[in-house]
Specification:
The chain is of the alpha+beta class. The protein contains 5 helices and 10 strands. The chain is elongated, with a radius of gyration of 23 Å.
């Protein structure tokens, strides 16, 4: 009897482990933030007049640049990144030179130029993904200086239905592109409000654009997204026993 009971418990443990392994690859992994240029220290006092211009978009995703612009504007307002934030009075994307000229005409101190570089709507079988870039340019009467140039990518796979030893768990489709755009905009907000990891802060050179030490040979710096580190035993437990989620 004891031997039979031991075999039963061993078989049950093996089934739980196998079910836990099915979880691998079904969750999204946070991407890294690519920083091409960043300023020393804080360069954005509250008195700046800031204008957000429409995001450009891929030819295969008409209208999605407007959606990315709208979501970015709402997140910048919600997070209080700038005290004075305006939508530029243009309906379609314009060139940097045109945006700088408009900034001088309208007394904008900073302009935000965005680009939706990649757009993919997923479903039950395919992941969703958006790639966005944002440039922050300080405009004066004499010059236009690039302060920030960052790129973020957000993706999320679908979760297929899974059969477990004790129950069945329904799947769900990939996250919507609107949700991914919101995540990307929040990451823009975090980067604009915080000093990037690995970048120095020099008080007397606050307006100078900087290439981090990691980019000395021309490659952009890649800063891991906050929260990307494993969560230790909780993550292990979730992988081994996913039906407790």
């Amino acid at each position: 009897m004891s031997s039979t009971l031991s075999r039963f418990f061993l078989f049950s443990l093996m089934m739980l482990v196998l079910c836990g392994c099915a979880r691998k690859g079904s969750s999204s992994s946070p991407a890294a933030d690519t920083i091409y240029a960043a300023p020393f220290g804080s360069v954005m006092p509250g008195s700046y007049r800031v204008a957000l211009f429409p995001f450009s978009e891929p030819g295969y995703a008409p209208g999605q640049g407007y959606e990315a612009t709208r979501i970015c504007y709402e997140e910048l307002l919600r997070n209080g990144v700038f005290e004075i934030l305006l939508m530029a009075p243009v309906k379609t994307p314009i060139s940097e030179a045109e945006a700088v000229a408009m900034a001088r005409t309208n007394s904008y101190d900073l302009i935000l130029l965005g680009e939706l570089r990649y757009f993919m709507t997923g479903g039950h079988l395919q992941a969703s993904r958006v790639d966005e870039e944002l440039r922050v340019i300080r405009v004066t009467a004499d010059e236009a200086r690039l302060l920030w140039h960052v790129r973020v990518a957000e993706s999320g796979p679908p979760k297929p239905p899974r059969d477990f030893y004790l129950q069945q768990k329904e799947g769900r489709p990939a996250p919507s592109t609107g949700e991914l755009m919101t995540r990307a905009s929040r990451r823009f907000c975090n980067m604009l409000q915080q000093q990037p990891a690995g970048l120095a802060s020099v008080a007397d050179l606050r307006m100078a654009p900087v290439t981090p030490a990691a980019t000395a040979e021309g490659a952009p710096a890649v800063v891991p997204r906050p929260g990307a580190q494993p969560s230790g035993w909780r993550e292990w437990f979730g992988r081994m026993f996913p039906f407790f989620e």
